[in-house]
UniProtKB/TrEMBL annotation:
It comes from Pseudomonas gessardii. The lineage of its organism: Bacteria, Pseudomonadati, Pseudomonadota, Gammaproteobacteria, Pseudomonadales. This is Uncharacterized protein.
Length: 115
């Protein structure tokens, strides 16, 4: 399971940011710099991240005209480095804004340590 498919992260983000989540995701996408090379795609399923999170992510990807994704039936296929970027920064925002429980903080800390 990838960090992006963690329903808890997306549920918290939807609850904490509501209608502002697509704007936040667009900001994260605009800060992303793709490195050259081939990367594996990861499927992000609506049933895992929830309807609101899926809608916000799809809206942000379409609005930013990101070419790093494909929409399939009930899921988005996104390149792995972009997934990593979105998750890391969304975790960071939740932590800084005081919305992250210990599990999200621990996941972020473990990633910082390379675990």
């Amino acid at each position: 399971m990838t960090p992006l498919s963690d329903g808890q992260l997306w549920s918290l983000a939807c609850e904490a940011y509501g209608d502002d989540l697509p704007v936040i995701l667009r900001s994260l996408l605009s800060a992303y710099e793709r490195r050259p090379g081939l990367n594996n795609p990861i499927r992000v399923h609506r049933s895992v991240i929830g309807v609101d999170g899926f809608t916000a992510l799809r809206e942000a990807l379409v609005t930013q005209r990101s070419n790093g994704f494909h929409q399939l039936d009930g899921c988005l296929e996104i390149r792995e480095p972009l997934v990593w970027h979105l998750v890391r920064h969304l975790q960071q925002k939740l932590i800084i804004d005081g919305h992250a429980p210990a599990s999200i903080r621990d996941q972020r800390f473990a990633a910082d340590l390379g675990l």
